[in-house]
Amino acid sequence: MTLKTLALMLVIAGMLIAAGCSAPAALPAATGTPAGEKVLPMSGNVTLGSGNKTVNVFLHSIELDAKAENETGRTVTIYVAAENTGTEPVMFVWFSKLTDANGNSYGGINVSHKGSGARTAWITPGDTEAARDYIDQLTNQDLGVLSKGAVLDVYFFEKSGPDGTIGAEPDYHVAWTIEPGAILG
Prior knowledge:
Elements: H1 3-21, E1 39-40, E2 45-50, E3 53-64, E4 74-84, E5 92-100, E6 105-107, E7 118-119, E8 128-138, H2 140-146, E9 150-158, E10 172-178
Protein name: DUF4352 domain-containing protein
């Protein structure tokens, strides 16, 4: 193991510890939230909800969009998928936040997707939908640090009623570790 590899592993371990220690206290202890705000691997999934309303969520993909000539920053596109494993239709809005190894955060509630977050249609039982969220205006310097690994926090708001209203606080919070190289700057 090289010194560079060891240093990178220590930085990522420190980031994971910091992410677990810095979770906002206002998040509800909702059924399905990983115990102790556990950070899942990129391939991890978790079931949210209870009773007739349950969904299995997982990170479908994360990618860096191509830069257009007239853009000042780059965009990271994040697809999270939700499979309805319950017996009732569900609808969600979710917001993504990336935190780099230096503790800098990008996106978040009412910020990602230009403030509107990713939105699903009604997901019927047995169906899966992957909704697109994005974090934009990232500089090459931001992307350079994010390319070394990050934590993706996703805050889920369940829509209710015929008009699809959401509450003021997220219903669920899930965090995934983004492996080094997954976001290439």
